[in-house]
Amino acid sequence: MSERVVLAYSGGLDTSVGIGWLKDATGKEVVALAVDVGQGGENMDDIRQRALDCGAVESIVIDAKDEFADDFLMPALKANALYQKRYPLVSALSRPVISRHLALTAKALGADSVAHGCTGKGNDQVRFEAAVAALAPELTSIAPVRDLALTRDKAIIYAEEHNLPIRQSAASPYSIDKNVWGRAVETGFLEDPWNAPIEELYEYTSDPEAGLGADEVIITFEAGIPVAIDGVSMSALAVVQHMNALAGKHGVGRIDIVEDRLVGIKSREVYEAPGAMALIAAHEELESLTVERDLGRYKRGVEAEWSNLVYDGLWYSGLKRSLDAFIDDTQRYVSGEIRMTLHGGRAVPTGRKSEQSLYDFSLATYDTGDTFDQSLAKGFIDLWSLPSKISARRDAKQG
């Protein structure tokens, strides 16, 4: 059997042309692999057939939506994962699940290499190849756009010369990536960071200034995982989908950010992640009720490091696995309900309750029934400030 390469296939121009381009450049048979992570759009069967029509010897479609939600989005939610404190890792979270299936498929078919459609300027090339290296170090990674000089103009000419079944409608000025966790938009006029986003950029969210009345929602968590909306039990995937619709209606989760890419350049990105941002806000609020002070403070530093690792393509690294173990332990008591109001682009917690709550009314109240012994406060403050007092005396002596 000829050597094979498994290509992460999206159905778009670059990966469709990449099938023949890879075969011509390497002599390998190309197997196309399309992974459904909730990106919507075209029917996956149509994408599968297009790969065959473009010359793939085999075309495989995998429905990974539940796997994506359970194994990747829920760990991100428990970590309150926000890169640069704002970006919920929309694209970064989908790459390790696609890479997992690339490696598994390559092993199952006896392929010696995998391929992807990334350029040499972005983060995704690193995410795919670092993940595959961790999962199947014996495989070689190939990037036709980066390694085999497949530019967009060459791709269009190649598609026309080979009569490939690729619709060449009016070219979008934007580069778009999407999945069930959110949607990313870049390039075009957005490359000037002074230019404001326009309404036509958005798909997952409605205009937050539309003047809709507020919606209220109650999210139930068990050990850090959302398990029900308004009392109705749901899978992790269904929770995300439901919150996308509900929060998206109010324009929640629009993000405009200048982002520090792994490859060392800054990039202007526009994201919309309504379900992700609403769920993170709810989860953080429940943690404030159920996680002790020092553990919560420390976890916030771990969350930043976890987000950096995932952004940088190190989902399968040893440090990431160890941080997962810590984060999972912090979630033992993160169970309860959060009530939120969704309105005007905001998801605002308005109520919280939990059987694991650390909030003690009798200690917190200033009214009758207060059990907090205020007489202990003076001695506590004296001891707490003692190091500062001693060092201040030394500083005074030194002038």
TrEMBL record:
Q: What is its EC number?
A: 6.3.4.5
Q: Where is the Arginosuccinate synthase C-terminal domain?
A: 174-390
Cellular compartments per GO CC:
cytoplasm
Q: Which domain of life is it from?
A: Bacteria
The record, for Pfam families, names: Arginosuc_syn_C, Arginosuc_synth
Q: Spell out the reaction equation it catalyses.
A: L-citrulline + L-aspartate + ATP = 2-(N(omega)-L-arginino)succinate + AMP + diphosphate + H(+)
Q: Which residues form the signal peptide?
A: none
Q: Which Gene Ontology terms describe the biological processes this protein takes part in?
A: argininosuccinate metabolic process; L-arginine biosynthetic process; urea cycle
Q: Does the keyword field hold Transcription regulation?
A: no
Q: In which pathway does it act?
A: Amino-acid biosynthesis; L-arginine biosynthesis; L-arginine from L-ornithine and carbamoyl phosphate: step 2/3
Please list the residues that bind ATP: 8-16, 117
Q: Which InterPro entries match?
A: Arginosuc_syn_C, Arginosuc_syn_N, Arginosuc_synth, Arginosuc_synth_CS, Arginosuc_synth_type_1_subfam, AS_cat/multimer_dom_body, Rossmann-like_a/b/a_fold
The Arginosuccinate synthase-like N-terminal domain extends over 4-165
What keywords is this UniProt entry annotated with? Answer: Amino-acid biosynthesis, Arginine biosynthesis, ATP-binding, Cytoplasm, Ligase, Nucleotide-binding
Give the residues the record marks as binding L-citrulline.
Answer: 87, 123, 127, 175, 259, 271
Q: Where does the UniProt annotation locate this protein?
A: Cytoplasm
User: Which PROSITE patterns does UniProt cross-reference here?
Assistant: ARGININOSUCCIN_SYN_1, ARGININOSUCCIN_SYN_2
Which residues are listed for L-aspartate binding in this entry?
Answer: 119, 123-124
State one molecular function term (GO).
Answer: argininosuccinate synthase activity
Major subcellular site: cytoplasm
Family designation = Belongs to the argininosuccinate synthase family. Type 1 subfamily.
How would you summarize the oligomeric state and partners of this protein? Answer: Homotetramer.
Q: Which PANTHER family match?
A: ARGININOSUCCINATE SYNTHASE
Q: What is the official name of this protein in its record?
A: Argininosuccinate synthase
